[in-house]
Amino acid sequence: MRLAAALWLLAAPAAALTMPLPATLTLSEDLPLTSYRFATGPYDDGLPAETVEGRLVREVHRMAAPGATPLQLLAPLRDQLEAEGWEIVFTCADRACGGFLFRFEIDVARAPEMFVDLSAYRYLSARRDGAWTSLVVSTSAGEGYVQRATVAPVDAAQPIVTSDARPAPTPDLTASSDVAATLAATGRAVLSDLAFETGSTTLPGTDYPSLAALADYLRANPEVTVALVGHTDAEGGAEGNMAISRRRADSARDLLTGPYGIDPARVETYGVGFFAPVAPNDTPEGRETNRRVEVVITSTP
């Protein structure tokens, strides 16, 4: 019986997982031969990891998940892996993983395909008969993101099965002129022309194409409400950055509800500091990218 079970596992495919909620495939890649690191412990002056060579298949799914936690999305996926015979090697949650440092040591697809909120993510790695797989799950602003990466040795008996879905076209989250299209497609958009220096919370002038486009969108959709969410780079402390990010969102709201004439009751503001970066903070370009204001649709049909 043990031999039969072992042979079954060798022949069984690394099946595509069933997402816990209706999801859109935002990224699908299949590399015939590469190396990929799978974390085996939390970040502590370095990342314990296993580097595996072979065929890499990676997919990212995005889903509407209002009120869901990363664990609620991860748990059914973990159960599926264990039912397929995968051995869980390591799993962790945001700060226990090592927070910011862990996030940027692992290989995660970049926004807008994948979004990792540093205060709300989970990681899991598992192995089976020479193959390794990992999950990165995060929730933010009512959406959930799941990245699965699987590497199987090129001579492995088990194939890797990918989902049948094709990635949806990805709108440009940083194009001011595409604010309306991006909001319609993803429910959020970066107002990229709202530029802030490190530590600054003020916006000079009133002429911002992204705010004009957002105002046009809100006038054309009077039932929609939004939140403006401020972000900072990682310089400075968490508490100060939370306050700065909120004031940045407030600055954008002042313009949107003042010169652009939008009803203040339709616009909330929040600040999340440096807990939701879209780029590494170890370069000036990355820090500039992270200092941003995003708009998120908060109304529901």
Automatic annotation (TrEMBL):
It comes from the Bacteria. Residues 1-18 form the signal peptide. GO terms for cellular component: cell outer membrane. Residues 183-301 form the OmpA-like domain. Keywords: Cell outer membrane, Membrane, Signal. This is Outer membrane protein OmpA. The lineage of its organism: Bacteria, Pseudomonadati, Pseudomonadota, Alphaproteobacteria, Rhodobacterales. It is found in: Cell outer membrane. It comes from Jannaschia seohaensis. Its main location: membrane. SUPFAM superfamilies: OmpA-like (SSF103088). Pfam families: OmpA.
